[in-house]
Specification:
With 158 residues, the chain is α/β, with parallel strands linked by helices. Helices cover 38% and strands 18% of the residues. A hairpin with a 2-residue loop joins strand 7 and strand 8. The longest helix has 20 residues. It is globular and about 40 Å long.
Length: 158
């Protein structure tokens, strides 16, 4: 897996498409249609996200898990094991990471880095920030490569 992190609107997907277009065998026809067909974590079902080779908005996928979004259709063991006062249903972090890696080990996963800045006042937002960071740490430990993108420029950190 290749993990790409960075702030909002920093060019993470464009960086990924440019960096791996040749090795991903992206044809000219696909490039003309706007590049890779990305699976978006803010919208995709569990199965679609699980099978996606190029997935973005992973942070929004985690938000949906924490909120126990019924449209996600995540398995009970992953979605909502431990209920918190904040209303979050904390996912099984290790189970989630294992399933993501097993389903598509060569995936390119793009996520916003949401741990910088002011700590949110809202309990749900704090849990969301914390869980996203912890899950991304687990993914980074297992990833073949980890990249941080800022202003469209990628820096390999693993």
């Amino acid at each position: 897996m290749i993990l790409i992190i960075g702030g909002e609107a920093q060019g993470k997907r464009a960086f990924a498409e440019e960096k791996w277009a040749q090795s991903l065998n992206i044809s000219e026809k696909i490039k003309d249609r706007g590049g890779i067909s990305w699976v978006k974590g803010g919208l995709a079902s569990w199965e679609t996200f699980l099978q996606g080779a190029y997935v973005c908005e992973f942070h929004l996928f985690i938000r949906r898990l924490l909120a126990a979004d019924p449209s996600l259709h995540a398995p009970a063991g992953i979605q909502g094991g431990r209920k918190r006062k904040s209303g979050c249903c904390l996912p099984d972090r290790h189970g989630l990471v294992s399933k993501l890696l097993a389903a598509c080990p060569d995936r390119v996963l793009v996520t916003n880095e949401i741990g910088y800045g002011i700590v949110p006042l809202d309990p749900f937002e704090r849990e969301y920030r914390e869980e996203t960071g912890r899950i991304c740490c687990l993914l980074a430990a297992e990833a073949k490569e980890v990249w941080r993108v800022s202003c469209g420029l990628g820096q390999r950190i693993k």
